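User: Structure please.
Assistant: Input sequence and predicted structure:
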Amino acid sequence: MHTPALPVKQDRAAPCDRRIVRSVLSVTAMHMKLDVTEAPRLVKSDWLADALGSIRQRLYPQPETNPPPNRSRFLDLSFTSPAGTRPYKLYIPSGYRDRPVPLVVMLHGCTQTPDDFATGTRMNAAAEMRTCLVAYPAQVRSANLQRCWNWFNPDDQRRDGGEPSIIAGIIQAIGADYAVDRTRIYVAGLSAGGAQAAVMGQAYPDLFAAVGIHSGLACGAAHDLSSALAAMASGAAGAAQAETRRAMPTIVFHGDADRTVNPANAASVLAQALPATRLTTKARDGQAPDGHAYTHTVTRDAGAVIGELWQVHGGGHAWFGGDPHGSFTDPKGPDATGEMLRFFLQHRNKP
């Protein structure tokens, strides 16, 4: 029986490998009743070289020479408690390695979804650079037809009840499954989500290290839908807080041409969040590149920055510096996402 000649490709196997395999093939050829003179030719064949290469790789694996692919994930999850069920999305950056990292909770506005809000704010990209987890709780139509958070409902303005307890429960669930730095948990939101972020900061001051409110209202600015519409149109003070309560570090963005939520609400948000005495403020004017002018006011307590207000001149009801592929965004800046994350990471809560 004559084995047909096979194409030859040089240097596919090391010389020592060839000697070993030549001996093995000689014995194999005898058992297969092949002409043993064909063994050297088989040693040079492509199929043998490929097989040998595969065996060598398994025995002596080579280290990776290319950088690992991006392993970030954007998960669809759900949380259920006695107060209800809410889906949410969780962004896990590629740099996450089971060591405690910050968590940012993002609350969308009316008619928005987590995917839409993530796209518009670009928070995932910012969190990727700083290795932060980002959670996006989703409001459901069964709770509000416009998917607004019910920030104006007294039952949804208190600790351990209603929607605040669901959002807090989502945070606890994430902390049970992932390594979260408990001293660096933050909450931010837009419009109704901004008002709900204010509620969360007031209801859970022990949980959050800082709050970001974009075009929102203070906690307790309304007690029903009618008063909510009035507060949005004209502005309203938030619920009074105990003077002994610690300040909640808060950063606020609001356009002075906002026709949906009156810009006067920005001052109410900060007045509620920063009740400490002996505060000092300093304002400066700026201009986003090829975009909006703004006034940036920094509030300090004993030298430490605890509050920032970004008044965007000519800005409407939209997330500043956002991606136009998302809803309610204004790409003309300033960069609300970047500035919020910078502010957040300057603050830690007590463990």
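The two ends are 80 Å apart (CA to CA).
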